[in-house]
């Protein structure tokens, strides 16, 4: 039986950067089948797979993690992004913090618990494509309703009760092409959309949530033109908007449209169309929720969920909980994992080995408590 760090090393060495999650899903499926789980691997896209593993009877607790990672350009790293080596007490490699260490902790805790309490109702969900908009979670069906969902995203083994929403928008402006030597005959879409991009970037009046912090907007990409001697007749930019309770995606779209209309009126810029690319809602579990408080105390003895006065108590990133919560019937959502939020997506990503061990032990305590809540007794 693997320990959590060894399993995390194996997963980091599997290249799931930007896709090809199926080998990792198949590897974990074998481990879970050997532990007595009923396993389902779905491959809705070639090479990309979701894994659902269930065991026990009754109402399950659901634990989830994603198998994909963001890309890593090895030329900028001081070590191999797929090394999975241990150095200075840290596991190194792409996905070590986000979030293969969390996935390893779930699998190790679940298989160890199953060895002595096989009747505990547990549902494990491992997905593809979380980093690019939760496509894997969206493709899932047939999940058992669950009152609690633990997402092992990087929280440095702190319990947080939700995260911001994610709204990705595409803004497009159209102009009129002309020869680059006669720009006055054209209508430069790039310049006009650049004015809107600058106005959005400088706009500071975004709403603020006591629990989730401030809504944010990032100008992420800009594309225009074909070659230097043509006036560009089309320009496109994308925005990453992080929404918070009280500031929905509809509110965000309305405000973006207001800002670009104002820019067009003041600077004579072209009309800009606004199109949704991704729309994931924010997630928030009430800190006073009895189940959330109980499970938090198991994961971090003596701790309680962060209340509204401890700002922010939720993550800035999005997770599969935006999609899975609805498929599970509206569970209490807890984010808890050994990775460090500051390590997610960075060059030379790493994760504390001690935190990986501690997380696996905490998740095993969590499953033992779930067993107790169902009236079970230790078997074997």
Brief characterization of the structure:
This protein has 380 residues and is α+β, with helices and mostly antiparallel strands.
Q: Could you explain the architecture of this structure?
A:
The chain is of the alpha+beta class and 380 residues long. It folds into 2 domains: 4-163 and 282-373, Zn peptidases (Aminopeptidase, 3-Layer(aba) Sandwich); 165-280, Alpha-Beta Plaits (2-Layer Sandwich), CATH 3.30.70. It is 31% helix and 24% strand. Mean pLDDT is 93; it is low at 307-312.
List the helices and strands and how they pair.
Layout: H1 4-12, H2 22-34, E1 38-45, E2 48-55, E3 61-66, E4 86-87, E5 90-92, H3 96-116, E6 122-127, H4 135-139, E7 148-151, E8 162-163, E9 165-174, H5 189-202, E10 208-209, E11 213-214, E12 216-224, E13 234-243, H6 249-267, E14 272-280, E15 283-284, H7 290-299, H8 321-327, E16 332-335, E17 350-352, H9 353-373
Helix pairs in contact: 1-3, 3-9, 5-6
Any guess at the CATH architecture of the largest domain? 3-Layer(aba) Sandwich
Which CATH class of the largest domain applies here? Answer: Alpha Beta
* CATH superfamily placement of the largest domain: Zn peptidases
Structural class call reads alpha+beta
Radius of gyration: 23 Å
Q: What overall geometry do the principal axes of the alpha carbons give?
A: elongated
Please write the string of helix (H) and strand (E) elements: HHEEEEEHEHEEEHEEEEHEEHHEEH
Q: Report the end-to-end length measured between terminal Cα atoms.
A: 18 Å
CATH fold group of the largest domain:
Aminopeptidase
Question: Helix count, per DSSP?
Answer: 9
């Amino acid at each position: 039986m693997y320990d959590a760090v060894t399993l995390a090393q194996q997963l980091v060495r599997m290249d799931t950067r930007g896709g090809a999650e199926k080998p990792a899903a198949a590897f974990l499926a074998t481990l879970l089948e050997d532990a007595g789980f009923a396993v389902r691997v779905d491959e809705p896209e070639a090479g990309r797979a979701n894994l659902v593993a269930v065991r026990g009877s009754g109402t399950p607790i659901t634990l989830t993690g994603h198998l994909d990672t963001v890309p890593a350009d090895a030329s900028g790293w001081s070590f191999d992004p797929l090394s999975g080596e241990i150095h200075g007490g840290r596991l190194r490699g792409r996905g070590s913090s986000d979030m293969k260490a969390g996935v390893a902790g779930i699998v190790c805790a679940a298989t160890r618990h199953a060895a002595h309490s096989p009747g505990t109702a547990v549902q494990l969900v491992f997905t593809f494509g979380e980093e690019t908009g939760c496509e894997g979670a969206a493709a899932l069906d047939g999940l058992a309703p669950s009152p609690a969902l633990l997402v092992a995203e990087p929280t440095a083994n702190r319990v947080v009760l939700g995260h911001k929403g994610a709204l990705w928008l595409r803004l497009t402006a159209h102009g009129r092409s002309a020869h680059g030597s006669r720009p006055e005959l054209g209508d430069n879409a790039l310049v006009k959309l650049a004015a809107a991009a600058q106005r959005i970037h400088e706009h500071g009046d975004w709403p603020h949530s006591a629990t989730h912090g401030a809504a944010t907007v990032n100008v992420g990409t800009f594309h225009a033109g074909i070659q230097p001697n043509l006036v560009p007749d089309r320009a496109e930019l994308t925005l990453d908007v992080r929404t918070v309770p009280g500031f929905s995606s509809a509110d965000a779209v309305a405000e973006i449209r207001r800002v670009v209309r104002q820019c067009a009126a003041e600077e004579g810029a072209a009309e800009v169309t606004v199109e949704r690319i991704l729309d994931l809602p924010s997630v928030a579990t009430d800190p006073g929720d009895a189940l959330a408080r109980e499970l938090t105390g198991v994961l971090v003895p003596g701790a309680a969920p962060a209340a509204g006065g401890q700002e922010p108590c939720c993550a800035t990133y999005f997770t599969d909980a935006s999609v899975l919560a609805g498929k599970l019937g509206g569970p209490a959502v807890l984010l808890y994992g050994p990775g460090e939020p500051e390590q997610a997506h960075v060059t030379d990503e790493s994760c504390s080995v001690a935190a990986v061990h501690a997380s696996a032990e905490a998740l095993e305590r969590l499953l033992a408590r779930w067993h107790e809540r169902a009236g079970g007794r230790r078997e074997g």
